[in-house]
Amino acid sequence: MPRIFTRLVAAALAVLGATASAQPAQPAWPTKPVRIIMPYAAGGPADAILRAMAPQLGKVWGQPLVMDYRPGANEAVGVAELTKSANDGHTLLIATDAAYALNPLLHSKLHYDAQKDLVPVSLLMNAPLMLLARPDFPGSTVAEVIDYGKRNPDKLSYASTGQGASNHLAMEWFKRTFGIEAVHVPYNSLPIALQDLATSRTDLTMVVTGGARAFLEGGRIKPIAVSGSHRQPLAPNVPTFEQAGAGKYQAGVFFGLAAPAGTPEAVRQRIAADMAKILQTPQFQKDYLSIYGFDAVGSTPAEFAEFLVHARVDAKARMTAAGVKPD
Fold this sequence. Notes:
- This protein has 12 helices and 10 strands.
- The chain has helices at 2-22, 45-61, 76-83, 97-106, 114-117, 142-151, 166-178, 190-198, 213-217, 265-279, 282-289, 301-322, and strands spanning 34-38, 65-69, 91-95, 118-133, 157-160, 183-186, 204-208, 222-226, 252-260, 295-296.
- The protein is globular and about 65 Å long.
- The termini are far apart.
């Protein structure tokens, strides 16, 4: 009996050893600096937040985080750089709904396939949009804005940062949701758009709270309501759309991290988990996110992939509502 038992144990160990050796080896990562492609100029909110995360990530990874600025073409320049990079997890891209959902709807000939070339790593943060009005607008609530729009269908205008931009689509969705009319006035930059709103050249706009911080603090524009599930620390007296009686209307921008197609799942999971630990820290949120009007998420790759499915459906619906067609 002892000999038989010994043989059985030896056979079992051999099977276990063969099974273990058949398992794919986990890729060594990182083995060099981790590059994050930033499809904007230096100094923006996403840049500042990732730079604040860099020291902690550097300690965990044992490698520095390096920013690579590739602005232009509504984030498409940054995407192009990512698609040319090795899929070993050492090159990542932070981008908004422009890269993931809007560009494929705006351009019939796009150099990348957002669903195949960009594999999800993590939905890092959301940025709810706030409805703003000129300082002398004859109303201070969502209901009053809607009422004015219905009574003055030929007088209302709104500013955006361009055709197909998030705030353009958000305002068109607002019009469709509440049955009002307003003339679209596109601008090339947010500061100029806000300056014209502050001087009453336009009536309304929607922007990320942090983008209008200086104008809000100076009382140069009138905040009406903010998207999302809670009020923003930068404007605690401004209600959410739901609190204002505007139902479930939502409008926002998200920032997500992507990698080149073929990047190992295990590497993407580790990156997502390490970043989530930082983003979900209350102190980090207070010091670096709330000042820009951002809400932390820190999702898994699978959660981000599911989020993108819904985001693309929503983007298409808003694009249709805005009458925007691919060029």
